[in-house]
Amino acid sequence: MSVEVVISQSVAVLVDGNNIERSIHSESSKQSTMLNFDTLIPKLLGNRGLNRFIYFREGKNISSKLAERLHSNYHGSVRACHKSADIPLSIKATQLAQKVDTIIIMSGDSDYIELVRHLKSEGVRVEIASIESTTSKLLVEEADYFHPITSDDWFTLKTSPQKRSTKKKVSKKVVKKD
């Protein structure tokens, strides 16, 4: 007789956008490569529920299309960070520690080792999702689980060739008056 196991874990996914973007661009050698959240998020969650999805990104120029897509598909949000995402992401993770069972940090940055230790001491399962070649081995060892992000998890935007201007250059004659 088989017994059905019901899993009701809630998960928060916190993304260090700059770190993940740099890693993907480095791995793909293309600046136009982006994560495919539509395939990656279900893979990370498995049969667990998504409680929060926050994409932290340094700078003010954050794609409104990305923000709209994350909100409409995952009720997620994009947070602009003054400098790096390390501190805002760490603060949010500690705030969420009592509200979720698992926190998935999408970054390979060794700066998160102390955060991982703290969250685990609070009883939170901590998983890391990142590009293996650019991820701190110590971070992977500290985490409860590591999800390697591979080329299956991203896509490259097709860039249209530069359009040539069809306008003719008009030169103006300068007439000097004596």
Count of spatially separate domains: 1
Determine the strand fraction and express it as a percent band.
15-25%
Q: Could you tell me the radius of gyration in angstroms? A: 22 Å
Which structural class fits the helix and strand makeup? alpha/beta
Order of helices and strands: EHEHEHEHEHEHEE
Helix content: 25-40%
Q: Would you give the CATH topology?
A: Rossmann fold
Q: What would CATH call the class?
A: Alpha Beta
Q: What would the average pLDDT be, to the nearest integer?
A: 88
Main β-sheet description? 6 strands, parallel
Specify the CATH homologous superfamily. 5'-nuclease
Number of helical stretches of at least 4 residues: 6
Shape from CA axes?
globular
How do the strands of the widest beta sheet line up side by side?
4-3-1-5-6-7
Q: Could you give the count of β-strands? A: 8
What is the CATH architecture term?
A: 3-Layer(aba) Sandwich
Distance between the termini: 107 Å
Low-confidence stretches: 163-172
Query: What oligomeric assembly is this protein in?
Result: single chain
Secondary structure elements and pairings:
Layout: E1 10-16, H1 17-28, E2 33-35, H2 37-45, E3 49-58, H3 64-74, E4 77-81, H4 86-96, E5 102-106, H5 113-121, E6 125-130, H6 137-142, E7 145-148, E8 154-156
Parallel strand pairs: 1-3, 1-5, 3-4, 5-6, 6-7
Antiparallel strand pairs: 2-8
